[in-house]
Amino acid sequence: MLYIVGGGGHGSDVADLALRCGLTPAGIADDRRVDTARFAGRGIAVSGTIVEVPPDARFTFGVGVPEVRQKLAPRVPCPPAQPLVDPSAVVSPTATLGAGTQIFWQAAVSPLCHLGEHVLIGHGAAVGHDSVLEDLVCVAPGARIGGDVTVGTCVSIGAGALILAGLRIGDHAIIEPGAVVTRSLEPGGLARGPAPGPLQR
Length: 201
Fold this sequence. Notes:
7-stranded parallel β-sheet; 22 strands; 6-stranded parallel β-sheet; UDP N-Acetylglucosamine Acyltransferase, domain 1; Rossmann fold; alpha/beta
């Protein structure tokens, strides 16, 4: 039995991912109020709170924010599910994927990569050869990670960002959308995206 923990927008994406992988989730678990109509059309029920997930089930996160995932993980009473890999994604057979990891449509994970538990690789994102992504890393759609990059725990990589090869990104760093990262980041570091241009009138 697969349960999705988190019933917001990302939970909806994960529901589609599960269905594309041939799995119909047994329920959506969330401590907040969930719009049941978001899932009812796909035959997925909102089952209750997080602690009500059956202990013999398996779960995957429907939450995209790394720190929230980290906070919720100890509260879920069952183990994480096997990785969900969209049929359109390209994952090298030499890559290793941790439990609870999600690889969305048209993403790519290159040879000899290691992804920890609960890693999220958004649609169209790419991870270069020999890279290591520790637990709870979130790679947003369209981001690119060069070869031989190490990304620490709970790092958030924004949409369309680029990390050049060989760099080290410390735990809990934030890489904003569209950022080009050319040097390693310390834990908790910030790589800013491009400055907004002037408004057009």
